[in-house]
Amino acid sequence: MNRRTAVALILSLAVTVTVADPTQARQTPTPVVPDGFGAAKLGMSAAQVRALYPALAPAPALKNVPYFNNPKLTRYVLMQHAVDGLKEPVDIEFRFWDDHLWSVIVYTGNNPFDAVLAQLASRYGPSSTHTGAPSWVGPRSSLVTTPAQKWYSVNDLVLSREAQHDLTERLRQQHRALPDGTAPRTGGAAPGAPSTTPE
């Protein structure tokens, strides 16, 4: 066997071994990202979601927080709702932007957050991030966790960009309107705030 034949044989064996080796062919699985909560899908109208969850009630008004005083933002809550895989019921907030379901915030209450994260991982697979606050990010939606504050949210990324633009512009206008130029009090970021890590 001459040298050229030997090199060709080695290269063909290397390619065969690489393709045949399942550890080489496997790629990191793409995370599954929810497109809503239960039967309520991101983008649905408030009327559609209320038909699915008749116990949905308007969320309490937070008049001193400019973020919540936007006419395009509507909030509803579902109290003490059972979630598969969690021992204790949870409170859920549904946020609508211009009458489209934009964000669902699940306040996990008395459930240990380790159990919440385990339930999310079993349902959606490996997270997109490997930090203390795992997130699942897809092309159209994201699931963001905040273990320290015991909630997670599912968000429509397109509606989040629209809301972020509008809310940022309104805050700028309020800032310009103040006589001393100080920034208005926002009360901190809120759960599910678009494109930000909520406090």
Structure description:
The model is unreliable at 1-27 and 193-199 (pLDDT under 50). The radius of gyration is 23 Å and the shape is globular. It has one domain (36-177). The longest helix is centred in the C-terminal third of the chain and has 21 residues, at 157-177. The protein contains 5 helices and 9 strands. The termini are far apart. With 199 residues, the chain is an alpha+beta fold.
Give a summary of the structure in a few sentences.
The chain has 199 residues and is of the alpha+beta class. It has one domain.
What is the alpha-carbon Rg in Å?
A: 23 Å
How much strand content do the residues show? 15-25%
Cα shape: globular
Please give the share of residues in helix.
25-40%
Instruction: List the uncertain runs.
Output: 1-27, 193-199
Strand order of the largest sheet: 3-4-5-6-9-8-7
Total helical elements:
5
How confident is the prediction overall: mean pLDDT? Answer: 79
- Kindly state the number of beta strands: 9
Through-space gap between termini: 69 Å
Which secondary-structure class do the elements indicate?
alpha+beta
Major β-sheet annotation: 7 strands, antiparallel
| Count of the separate structural domains | 1
Question: Order of SSEs, N→C?
Answer: HHEEHEEEEHEEEH
